[in-house]
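Teaching assistant here, posting this on the class forum so everyone can see the example we discussed in section. The complex has two components, and the goal was to see what a joint structure prediction looks like when all of them are supplied at once.
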Amino acid sequence: MSRLPFYIIVGFLLVAGIATSVHRHIQFEIPWVPGEQRQVWEIEAVINFNAQNGPVQVDLALPSHQSGYRVLTENTASSGYGLAYQADELGRRAQWTTRDAAGSQQLYYSVQMLVSPDARPPVQTPPGLTSATPWESPYDSAASQLIDRAWARSANNATFARELILDLNGERQGENARLLLTQEAPSTLIVRLLNQAGVQAREVSGLLLEDGRRRQALSSWIQVFDEPANQWAIFNPLTGEQGQPENLLLWETGGRAVLEVEGGTNSRVMFSMLTHYQPASAAVRNHYSDDTLVNFSIHSLPLEEQALFQTILLIPIGALVVVFLRVLVGIKTSGTFMPVLIALAFIQTTLLTGLIGFLLIVAVGLIIRNYLSYLNLLLVARVSAVIITVIAIISIFTVLAYRMGLSAGLTVTFFPMIILAWTIERMSILWEEEGPKQVLIQGGGSLLTAVLAYLAMNNPWVRHITFNFLGVQLILMALILLLGNYTGYRLLELRRFKPITDDEKPS
Amino acid sequence: MSWLKDWTWPGRLQDKGIIGMNRRNIRYIGRYNSRRLYPLVDDKLKTKLLAQQYGITTPELIGTVATQFGVKHIGDMLTGHNGFVIKPAKGSGGKGILVIEKVVDNQFVKPSGAQQTLEDVERHVSNILSGLYSLGGSPDVAIIETLINFEESLMAYTYEGVPDIRVIVFKGYPVMAMMRLSTAASDGKANLHQGAVGVGLNIATGEALRGVQFDRPCFSHPDTGHDLASLVVPQWDTLLNLAAGCYEMTGLGYLGTDMVLDRQHGPMLLELNARPGLAIQMTNGEGLRRRLDLIERQPEGVAVEERVAFAQHHFARKSELVETSDTTLSSA
């Protein structure tokens, strides 16, 4: 019986695994170690309007690279519409067009923005001063009084803008301000007054980013061109506060409308957003990704599925830990791969909460299972009863934890309930037949294996390697095959068989 | 470094010819035991019927229970039998075996003296049927067989349970043997990891070589206090021939045979094991490796008697019990 084919397979797996990994490292410049994590915002804009049985043209402002944010990828979903992206010095816009549309219409635009504090906006050119529309009487005198008042109390463009905003809002809002506000919306009025005083200013629309928010609208902000610094300063039109809030994404900066719809009524645009962290390398890769055959990998999947695979690809690591501990060390576990599933649950619950939760559930389960054994039930019915018991225990613990304000207790629901039920059943039988010592040995072995598997699977480097280098799976396969061929002693056997080696000494 | 004293080096185990779990699984079980033959030994009922076919003596079968409906009739089946054993056909590691020594006033008395009602017995059978003790929890059949009236001369070496003799049969050759004596610690069961005493037996004569409890050497039975050195298994040649014959019966190359000695019927086959444990090396104080290597070099197709004679010739050993007890005396 030749072992040659076996070693050929193992060798092939090793070579293939290492080769694909090295290829990915070189071709896609994916580092071997995880870099810093980058925050990415996923923002979706939904345009709703009613089409009027005719040609429709929809014009939506799009965000551009700006200070703090960088555009990674963008997608649209709009069946039956032609789409064109346009860019000029005032910003980027998407234009959807169709010849004939009727009824309620929905258009989608989604963009991934990478949070990068060092991102700089493109070179700023001072815009030409828009000729101020003259006010009619009596508004002209009110406007000039406001401007004079703010001008006198300010030193430069920025402070002038701040004073003007404060004069139009809150306590300092005077008679003149109230009169002018009947004519214009606040932010538009501020820009008009600033322009009238010869200060370059414009109104921009921005989105305040908050994780998990849906159906959000854009808010108005005032930008004033700061002459010496040669850049735009941003002001809150309500408080006069200067500076861009960290979570403000500027959506439209050209002073134009965010959404223009021709051939439709009741148009509006709503935004929803989500944030997540991903390795900088992945963020960069997304930036350059294109749909070639080489890109045929799980990294071309939508992010949600990728996140799922991130967990699935860790399972072989857990399996390797189990094989290692059983074949090389000789640890007894209750249920071969039960520890891997427990370790997966630990990833969700964090280690300490997971350990406490697991011990509580199994301990209470064992007590109830002990009573069930008096009822003389058939096996399937009894295990089913244990499953329901486990669910009840988990529910009670969750509610208790919530009541006591322990939000960590809520994650207990991540435990695989059927597996727990079988664990309890097996341990209970073990208890009856072999006594509590064996339960401790096997239960402890299972927990130790689960903790080690968790530590391996939750290691950032392991996560990075398994997720980014699929070839590693082949290497794991080869290692497991090799371990399956190991005929040497287990570590614990060195202790077990120790007495045999002793008794040669006396003779 | 005191914790290191409980550990040894792989090289020293190698020198002793000790076989580890991994080697047993890959090199012997995996190579010599064909998967399709497993059901013959994993199902004790099949083993029993097969043994009858091959003329190998086994304890007399009282009956089997295969359905939950049949559980209700177990009382009728048991009338007239004073001592009996109920076991799952697919049980492993001695799990689910209920031994009833005698029946007094409809109370079933276990060897420990504990009394069981008919209801308890029925529940036990019901548990067996639902697969509580079987491998993988699959539905099972309960086997009821007569209690073995075990050999008087061995009575002194055991506490409550029946002492059984495990012979490892490799390619039809008996390579190593031990006797398992139940103790109070093992609750009348003959499982070594539960505290039964294992006594290595000389393949040539059936005499005790050395005793082990909880993997540590021992020289007398912990409960009866009887000296293990004087232990000799009667009808040893018959027993070895019976064990060796199981190779032809099952076709399994690496086999653990569990035998008992009955007062009237002599050696009987209790059950077979396709994955025999490694504790037998501890009780013999010797690794299996050299003996297995020697057998692997022997040709196929040798008759049972010749194989037994070969093993008795090559694997004869001197008892350590006499020797070591001498040294302890002199040192004391």
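For the discussion questions: Chain B touches chain A at residues 6-10, 12-13, 16, 18, 20-23, 26-27, 31, 68, 95, 123, 126-127, 130-132, 137, 194, 212, 215-217, 281-282, 285-287, 320, 323-324, 327 (CB under 8 Å). The longest helix of chain B spans residues 236-250. Think about how each of these relates to the inputs above.
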